[in-house]
Amino acid sequence: xxxxxxxxxxxxxxxxxxxxxxxxxxxxxxxxxxxxxxxxxxxxxxxxxxxxxxxxxxxxxxxxxxxxxxxxxxxxxxxxxxxxxxxxxxxxxxxxxxxxxxxxxxxxxxxxxxxxxxxxxxxxxxxxxxxxxxxxxxxxxxxxxxxxxxxxxxxxxxxxxxxxxxxxxxxxxxxxxxxxxxxxxxxxxxxxxxxxxxxxxxxxxxxxxxxxxxxxxxxxxxxxxxxxxxxxxxxxxxxxxxxxxxxxxxxxxxxxxxxxxxxxxxxxxxxxxx
Length: 274
Description:
Blueprint: E1 11-19, E2 22-28, H1 38-45, E3 55-60, E4 67-73, E5 78-79, H2 83-97, E6 101-106, E7 109-115, E8 121-124, E9 153-156, E10 160-165, H3 174-182, E11 192-200, E12 203-210, E13 214-216, H4 220-232, E14 239-244, E15 247-254, E16 257-261, E17 265-273
Parallel strand pairs: 2-3, 4-6, 10-11, 12-14
Antiparallel strand pairs: 1-2, 1-17, 3-4, 4-5, 6-7, 7-8, 8-16, 9-10, 11-12, 12-13, 14-15, 15-16
């Protein structure tokens, strides 16, 4: 198992990871003085002058779980949840400790992660937030069909989501559509935007625009939100396969929460010079 470079005063070790092309920088601050803030996160996130990432995750100590996770978007803003990063980090730590289960504390809450005999890791992203005030939305409207052209569904997964069901996801100009919808006034904290197409029984094709980032190859929390939205609208059951630009995730909305399963990758280790 690769080990990160030892920390020192003038450099910051990190891991580069991805889940289906949704890429992350991971910084382990357990046992050291916290050093990552929005400014540093934005600098590292620059794909031309930094390392580049969709999200940055900081690991820290907590008495309430095996590890605490804090997430930043590429623009330096914070993210309350990041499903793919959580799964990647859980997989790495479970392999490192030769265990099969662990808990991770996030702004969303206490998440459980489990690894099967093949080393594939699943994370419980907890129950979806379906009330308008907890998504959150700016006013009391029906989250199942928002008063927006296309009647999208709003879902909170620790971060806000807006899911449009369309006939053909490839026909949507996501680079302009997503940018516009991210800042819709109905979402006071901005929103992640998904366009989803039902392509078979319990089978969804989805593309995603992440707030503070842009188009990404995949998104774990977006996949959870889309699966919940499809089930609520009667388009699928509660266990679905979601095909993203970067690959496939399996989402299972159970009595104890929304479980997400998919591949992970540890790409390389590096050092950011402060």
